[in-house]
Design brief:
The structure holds two protein chains of two kinds.
Chain A: H1 3-17, H2 21-33, H3 36-63, E1 68-73, H4 79-88, E2 101-106, E3 114-119, H5 127-134, E4 138-146, H6 150-165, H7 168-173, E5 176-182, H8 192-211, E6 243-247, H9 263-270
Parallel strand pairs in A: 1-3, 1-4, 4-5, 5-6
Antiparallel strand pairs in A: 2-3
Helix pairs in contact in A: 6-8
Chain B: E1 4-9, E2 14-19, H1 28-39, E3 48-51, E4 54-61, E5 66-73, H2 81-95, H3 97-101, H4 106-110, H5 116-132, H6 151-154, H7 158-177, H8 181-201, H9 204-233, H10 235-242, H11 268-280, H12 284-295, H13 299-319, H14 331-339, E6 343-344, H15 347-363, H16 368-382, E7 386-387, H17 393-409, H18 417-426, E8 431-436, H19 443-456, E9 461-466, H20 473-487, E10 499-502, H21 510-524, E11 528-533, H22 541-554, E12 558-564, H23 570-584, E13 596-600, H24 610-619, E14 623-627, E15 635-636, H25 640-648
Parallel strand pairs in B: 8-11, 8-12, 9-10, 9-11, 12-13, 13-14
Antiparallel strand pairs in B: 1-2, 1-5, 3-4, 4-5, 6-7, 14-15
The chains are: A alpha/beta, B alpha/beta.
Chain lengths: 272, 650
Amino acid sequence: MATEPGINMEAKIDARENPFEPYLDALKKVLEDQDPIFMIGIVVSLAVVVITVVFLKYLLSRKTVQSAVLLVGLCDSGKTLLFSRLLSGKFKKTQTSITDSSAPYKAKNERGSSWILIDLPGHDSLRPQYVEKFKSAARAMVFVVDSAIFQKEVRDVAEFLYFLLTDSVVSRNVPSLIVACNKQDITMAKSAKLIRQQLEKEMNTLRVTRSAALSAQDGSAGASVHLGKKGKDFEFSQLPMKVEFLECSARGSKGEDGEADIASLEKSLALL
Amino acid sequence: MLDFFTIFSKGGIVLWCFQGTGVTESFTGPVNALIRSVILQERSGNNSYTHDALSLKYKLDNEFELVFVVGFQKILTLTYVDKFIDDVQLHFRDRYKNELEQKGARTLLSSCFAFEDDFKMLLCEAEESSKARGPTSMRSFNASLKSQKTVKSMIETKGGDKGKEQGGKKNKNAKKEAPAAEPVKGEQAKAPASAQKTVENGNQGLTQEEIIQKKREEFIRKRMWAPAEKPSKSPKPVKEKTKGKEKRVWTLGGNSTKELDYSQCNGNGDHATGVHVLDAQADPGMQLSSMKGDLLAVDYESSEEEEEDVVEKVVVADTSKQIPKRGAYGGMFGMLKGLVGSKSLSQEDMEPVLDKMRDHLIAKNVAAEIASQLCDSVAKKLEGKVMGTFTTVASTVKGALQDSLVQILQPKRRVDILRDVLEARSQRRPFVITFCGVNGVGKSTNLAKISFWLIENGFTVLIAACDTFRAGAVEQLRTHQRRLNSLHPPQDDRGRPVVQLYEKGYGKDAAGIAMEAIAYARNQDFDVVLVDTAGRMQDNTPLMTALAKLIAVNMPDLVLFVGEALVGNEAVDQLVKFNQALADHSISDKPRLIDGIVLTKFDTIDDKVGAAISMTYITGQPIVFVGTGQTYNDLRSLNARAVVGALMKA
């Protein structure tokens, strides 16, 4: 009987698949018992959940990518005018900013990369909360300094710069730092080199006084990040991030209708 | 007439500006001063501000994040400015709605706002409307009501006077009890007319003249009717007078209780007198208006106000696009509607939440007027703001209040004592800190703590004992000096103690001691001089003068006001009076005011930390030190976020 070995073979194959068979059969039976629409519903919802999870992961990972350049500095240093010049090239009268302004900026390089330029208010009572809000999204910071009255303000400038550099988020993300010495159109403006030297000296002193400052009343101590190398005088080259000093003039030497002198700033921004 | 008008975004870009003819100075300075002192210090409750010779009025548009500022000379009193700003705001919003609605600053930078023509038109309208309400021409004598009075009525005799008054009073009582249906109707007919007039004016300041005129007419009406009643009333009081002394009859002290039974004669007797009075009137037409005037001497104004309010509410409801049927939707639906979709905040929405927040702040020991000023400022900041989806009014208001509180507590200048001491050392002069405050707040204790912190950081300290009044003050400081020296033995190369005390005993002039101490410190190369003064109440004028003299003469680098965290509403009074005294008695035109605050006894309050807010709000100066105990180590700096967190905690 030729069919018998065939049947025997089938019985053998069946026997091999046997351990799974009953389970598969039971599963098939249960599935078939259910309404097909219900099955489709379950499948669709599972698919939606999976897609959502993937999407969320993608979005969250997008957020932590730093895509903004912050314009920071003391009050009246020219940040808002610089913001206007960089974006539109026009001169606009400005007042003390109370909130931040942001706009997408197209860098002048071959890639044509565009990121968001954010102008933060410089007033002392608003500075900390706005820096807090935007520091994690920063890929670079443009620190605007008023070169004309720098001598009087050197301690305030240095304190703000120290506060920025010792911030835990900033020292983790290491955004590049561009120090723009603004208001170069005024005759008494200091050069970028001089400003750099004075800031280094000041930061050196600040390292000592800030670490000796009193802790807050609920026990939280100040920033414990130490700038530069211990035992040596502070220099900006010791920092983990790229620091660049350049000169610019948002107002421009030809008055309000002329062009602004921000070529070097634009070049640096293009390299980001 | 206006010096300038600017419209700028909250991000700082000026969208449009107007400078009056003949005005040469730029307005950037005054407007920046306005922003810094009013908006950033959360004093935006009242919307005007004076800077030098200019008076500035401003308005915040929170939906599009704009600020409208107008400036004019302080000596001019322009009445149309408030309404003018509102009109300009509405016009600007309507015209540039498209540009303003877009997020991001690109559109603001690139678009050009050519608003001159509209502005000129609005300005002309506003000026004309104010001119139209010029001073009213005086009426001639014949036209006035005085000429219509008889001479006899003007004569004031003693009896007649009383009679007039009594007549007036009786009249009032009669009118009050008599149900006057017709007069009410007549009054209702008249009131809307007058109310319409006031609503049409629209500007509160200009209706004052209307109100004055109305009241004048009413008063004259009252006077007109009083003389007419006088003849009927005058005989009675005169008769009573001539009778002489008679036995007093108590109406309720009688033997029988029949007199206490008012069931019959309750309304009748008065009705009779009321009718009697009515018959005495000459003209029935005048009678109606007279009853109206006297009947509601108090009620007339209130019911007229109600009419006014009703009409105004209707008018306001028409102009604004609010749908009053929101309440009719029922709880569930209304709540959902409130959550989803963009809704702009109005004063009524925020009112209950702000009241609750105000009470919460007061419960946390913030001074009452500071709390209300803060809430007003937050209301101004949020008015008209469009809320996002799924945000409730309460959460928006709480968030805004939290931001404002953090902003107030953030120092407005750099606070780094050690750095400043180093700077003074490099200039070869001592850094002088003066401590002032009322009695018993912890000046001497915290002075010792601060000197401990300074010597820990390697500075030499001279303590000037300028408290020459309190018993044991000098000895207390001497004990502190000995202890600090024993904790830090003299290690510097000069081998001299790190802390020294400069004292001249009791009863001497504090300002003189301070001056000598500073000179001594300069000679001996001390880094810091800490000047301890006697505690004094802010109302004590001679002592406040002495303190002001000490500060004005010695010009310390830092004037610290020591205040305890337990103080409540007193903090406002203390700081205001201290600052006032320092400003009044200073010799220069730039007086030295309080530069910083030391908040002591912080460990005694758990989370009732409101005193910190009150003190920083009043002075605008930062809290430099926080004293958290009674040993040398209990000195901290302020963490604004932690304090605000404790304050907002339920």
